[in-house]
Amino acid sequence: MNKKGLNKEFKNYERNVTIVLVVLTAISLIIDFIAYTGMVYSDGTLYNTDAIRVIMNSGLFMLLIWVDNIAIYITNLFYFAGIISSKRDMIVKIAFMIFSVLSTILINLQIVNLIADLFGIF
Q1: Which residues contact 83 (CB under 8 A, 6 or more apart)?
Q2: Cα separation of 84 and 17, whole Å?
Q3: pLDDT classification of 23: cutoffs 50, 70, 90
Q4: Of 62, 83, 91, 102, which one has the greatest count of Cβ atoms within 10 A?
């Protein structure tokens, strides 16, 4: 394969991995929105959050959380490999990679627990 064809394949690889990571990050942000809404408005006296609790406790939602989180971590490995070989817009790509990892519910809960432990909230 000539160099021009290889360069085209790499651009397609980089574009495809970026699209997958953007979609997974959007799904992760939607999951975060549902989870934090359920946690913030969990007080049953003011708000009726039964519908959100049913969604959050469903097996499909839990499966979606785990699949999305694992897929983001794996896709980030491929994205990082593309960043290293591309060396174009490296800082922006690394920032997006860090944002996508920080948008996962597992990391968010760890950050909340760390802050709660620091201030002795729980």
Answers
A1: 90, 93, 94, 97
A2: 14
A3: very high
A4: 83
